[in-house]
Amino acid sequence: MTAAPPVAAPSAATPAAPRAVFDWFFALAGLGVVAIYVRAIYFTPIEATQGAAQKIYYLHVPAALAAYIAVSLTALMSIVYLWLHDERADRLADASAEVGLVFLTVVLATGPLWGHKIWGAWWAWWDMRLTLTLFLWFVVAAYLVVRGAVEDAAMRARFSAVLGILGALLIPFIHLSVYLFQARLHPMPIVLKPGEPSLPGEMLTTFLLAFLAFAVLCLAFIGVRYRVGVLRDLAAEAIA
Amino acid sequence: MSGNPPGTLAAAWLIARKDLAIEFRSRTAFLSALVFAVLALCIFYFAWDESIIAPADRAPGVLWVVVAFSGLLGLQRSFSIEEHDRGIDALLVAPTSRESIYLGKAIGNFVFLCAVQAVTLPALVLFYNLSVGEPLLGVAAIMVLATIGIVAVGTLFSAMAVNTRMAELLLPMVSLPFFVPVLLNAAQATTRILGGRPAAEAWPWLRIIIAFDIVFVVACTMAFPYTLEE
Amino acid sequence: MLSTSGSLVVEASGLCRTFGRRRAVDGVDLSLVAGESLALFGPNGAGKTTLLKLIAGLLAPTSGTVCVMGRALRSESSSRASIGLISHQSMLYRALTSLENVEFAARLYGLESPRAAAMTALDRMRVADRARTPVRALSRGLQQRVAIARSIVHQPALLLLDEPYTGLDAAGAAALTDMLRDVRRAHATLVLVTHNVDEGLAVASRAAIMLDGRFARQDDCAALDASAYRAAYRSMIVGETPPPEWTMPVSA
């Protein structure tokens, strides 16, 4: 929960690195998540049919929301970069993609844990959100691998932006294809509609608060990672 | 001397012909992709017990996995020949538009992949004991439609990959997620057709492939100039 | 298509190009009219190749402008029909024959009889007897001759040459010098990057020395004493102090 580490004094060649400050936003986000889990575990009723296992739901779905926020930001920043050629947009796209990958992994890890408990199956292919998240994971992973494989900064930014935009175009096609695939067998609502049964008051409140906490956490992580990106670019310039 | 530089499609066709001429000289990539495809068909055959799942039932899935991976082998080479002695620079200095370079490469890849598939499909019929008949024409049509989509994204990504480290590893990793809608829908459509279902049942799947083709041919043509050195 | 005499073929103003933090071209102003030929000298890393690529439209300027015959080559593909480029790499396809390589270029430029034009170009570089040989089987010097033939097949009005004499034997160098003289006689414009001062001065009407991304000096070749220029240039490159009259800035 600490801020970016303090950096050496600027030399004549490099511009001054950002001053180390305590990251209030991140601390707030962290506290928010802790508070949510205290509420979810101790102060929210246990669900009737699923038992205590249902509580993973407060992690699984908000993590998905955080992931979608991050990944959408990457796609948006890709467009902004190609339009304005501002390296800050590229840096933000990179930060969002990494944070997005982490949250996507959380969704993919908690999904089977939950699914196995309540359905007896590890992977529910008919769960649209889970399947889409899986393919989104592959696309974001490819995005990050491409970033790692290109040395020239301008070329890296261009390639990533192209991949970000094409990836955004791809998602509806995957959604359509998988929906068509399982619609024959298990008609299920689409990913945007909450597929779970409507929640009673207490649980709904916890759920919505969890959404908020994770959204804030996502943005806080992106902020931290963005600053790491700035430091990294400064270091690369100093070496060059 | 005044010349009349060819238009976009004519220049694309010139570039495609040039690529195919180069490929025809050595045929190494073509034969590698071909041997891989046929060998993979055979290996997959032995992965199942034919008393549990009939070969004809696994054929569609196997076909599309093999098409995807043999396609990747072909896509690798399309920009590596330009990188060798910077032939790409000559194309960029000539009065050919960036779009025609992309289209030319894509057309060359399309012909290459179709040529590999022209052997893969009969090999499938042979090894999986499929009945020869009209449904095979339907499958061939699906293969053509799917190949357009595969080539559209694959050509763009091979242009990117040639500028990176580990190009051969990067291309499959980036391309395969994009192949998923094509492969999924094509496999489902192929299952319907080979299962003797009426063509109308395959249509919802084919529709998505066609939409994918249109969207990505346009998007990748527009994206291509960004993959060139600036 | 040759431009009329007196019109500006190459015009660069404040041209800059950076790669990361390195300024390869750092504020170049250049004007070349039709029929002029510029010999560009300078040490390795001075930015000569980058400048050539900027003129050819292969690279985009970080700032400043460069126009060929009044048009920006990067955005308008049709105006590229009158330039030819010879660079460090051959830009040939090794699996194809010499004739196929040059004919492909001829077709790309939309020439009327591509095959005949290709044979003519190969003949000018005295490599027509290797027309049917795959480029892969040719020696470095012969590959260079084929590469040069490919770049002149469409008789460009502006020819950009980056150390074209590299790898050429005496016969190849003679063919190139003859070709360049013909090109000059036809009133085309040349920019020749070379390390060999004699070769450069033999062909050029203007000479420039590039240092650290900008022109250290430009001279009219008619006013130059070749041996003095050569000696002073050499000392400049090696790092010794050149003679005093050398350090006077010379306007274009």
Short description:
The complex is a heterotrimer of chains A (240), B (230) and C (252). Chain A contains 6 helices and no strands. Chain A has 240 residues and is mainly α.
3D structure, described in words:
Chain A is 72% helix and 0% strand. Chain A is mostly helical and 240 residues long. Chain A has one domain. In chain A, helix 2 runs antiparallel to helix 3 (87-119) and helix 2 (57-84) packs across helix 6. The longest helix of chain A has 39 residues, at 201-239. Chain A is globular. Chain B has 230 residues and is an all-alpha fold. Chain B has one domain (8-227). In chain B, 80% of the residues lie in helices and 0% in strands. Chain B contains eight helices and no strands. The radius of gyration of chain B is 19 Å and the shape is globular. Chain C is of the alpha/beta class. Chain C has a single domain, classed as P-loop containing nucleotide triphosphate hydrolases (Rossmann fold, 3-Layer(aba) Sandwich), CATH 3.40.50. Chain C has seven helices and nine strands; from the N terminus they run E-E-E-H-E-E-H-H-H-E-H-E-H-E-E-H. In chain C, the strands form two sheets. Chain C has a six-stranded mixed sheet with strand order 5-6-7-3-8-9, with helices on both faces. In chain C, strands 2-1-4 form a three-stranded antiparallel sheet, covered by helices on one side. In chain C, helix 2 (98-108) packs across helix 3 (114-124), helix 2 (98-108) packs parallel to helix 4 and helix 3 crosses helix 4 (140-152). Chain C is globular. Mean pLDDT of chain C is 88; it is low at 248-252. Chains in contact: A-B, A-C, B-C. The interface between B and C is medium-sized, with 29 and 37 residues.
